[in-house]
Write a structure and sequence with these properties.
single chain; 81 residues; mainly beta; 3-stranded parallel beta sheet
Length: 81
């Protein structure tokens, strides 16, 4: 699995690469989660800053799993965030 390290600034991140970890590092980051054409799995690792996850209004969420330190979102097309 590949890892993309972003900056310690306030980044806007649209994760699209399959089997990739996105590391936000510092800063108040915004993640825009967009469903992909094929089944895709991406991981977001960001424990610093006040981060925001945005889903477009047309997103079709199949399930959400919430744990103490993690969140898993599966969309209708089987994209997993």
């Amino acid at each position: 699995m590949a890892t993309i390290n972003l900056s310690s600034d306030n980044d806007i991140i649209i994760p699209t690469n399959n089997n990739t970890d996105y590391r936000g590092l510092g800063g108040d980051d915004t993640y825009i989660l967009v469903s992909q054409k094929n089944s895709t799995s991406v991981s977001i690792i960001d424990t610093e800053g006040n981060n925001v996850i945005q889903l477009p209004e047309w997103s079709k969420i199949k399930s959400i799993l919430v744990a103490k330190t993690a969140l898993k979102i599966t969309c209708d097309d089987m994209t997993v965030f």
